[in-house]
């Protein structure tokens, strides 16, 4: 639970400031995906326990800015049940901004994306999967 809280707070900080550390994780496009006007960030959040070396435990995240009003819209955390069920499943087939195209090679916009009205954080959990 503490790791998820730490990851959520770290990603919320990405949304609030877009500082230098956040900008290193900014995603400017995906192969086969249409260009989009909203921002996305993807990377790892350090969730090491006290006494562990920094970076010894990291959690992967993908943050999608709300397409509506990112500074006013809520932040939704999505985890997809794991272990063995990737949080990116939600990103690419459920609530995320994209879905696989009919050709199976390209991505198309998801008309039912929750990112239309909320800032979405997709998390891989537990740590190490």
Describe what you observe in this structure.
It is a single chain. The protein is of the alpha+beta class. The chain is built from three helices and seven strands, in the order ααββββαβββ. The chain has helices spanning 2-17, 20-24, 88-93, and strands at 26-27, 40-46, 58-64, 75-78, 98-100, 107-109, 119-123. The strands form two sheets. A five-stranded mixed β-sheet has the order 1-2-3-7-4. Strands 5-6 form a two-stranded antiparallel sheet. The protein is globular. GO terms for molecular function: serine-type carboxypeptidase activity. Belongs to the peptidase S10 family. This is Carboxypeptidase.
Short key terms for the protein model shown above:
two-stranded antiparallel sheet; alpha+beta; 7 strands; five-stranded mixed beta sheet; 3 helices; 129 residues; Rossmann fold
